Amino acid sequence: MIDYTLVGFALAMISIVLCVVLERLRGDPIDFISRTVEKACYGWFFSLLTGSDNFYFILCSTIAFAFGCSPSWGIPHGAFVANRPMAPNREGEWHWWQYGILRTSIGAAITARAALWALPMLPVCWYFNEGWLAPLSIFVGYIAAFPLSRKVNIRFVTKYVRVREEWSEVEIIRAFVAATLLYTLGYFF
User: Fold this and answer.
1) Whole domain around residue 135: which residue ranges?
2) Higher model confidence: residue 120 or residue 161?
3) 117 in any annotated domain
């Protein structure tokens, strides 16, 4: 169960901030530590926000989270940020998961990629019968981050987190929205 005392709230805020920083590190082309460690740390702090006290659930959901965040979504992400149609990458290739409408519709591609990020956590939640809000928070939070990035000014964050362009802002917003959503929904459910 999530601790909603002042100490629990402070620890949750630290976890949310670390999710934002680790999402930015994970998405940055320059590896600060290593991509695998960044994904695992991000998954660990995100999983802690479920409020579970089951170490094995946290461990398994961390691994599932790292698998979910592994496939790239640069093509629809870049097309959204640049406000242009999607096109293959510089090598003339699409992401392995992009077929049919996922090559022409930015919204469909972003929705599919958010589902791919959340999907590996579902078997973990089913097996342990807890943490069901985590995949939902990923799915909803990551889709919502794209339109929010055009509405929310987060320039103040640039002092603390490496932000090169609007691309980075979407990563920061999606980590913040998903982690905050998970923590907040945990209070009600």
Assistant:
1) 6-188
2) 120
3) yes
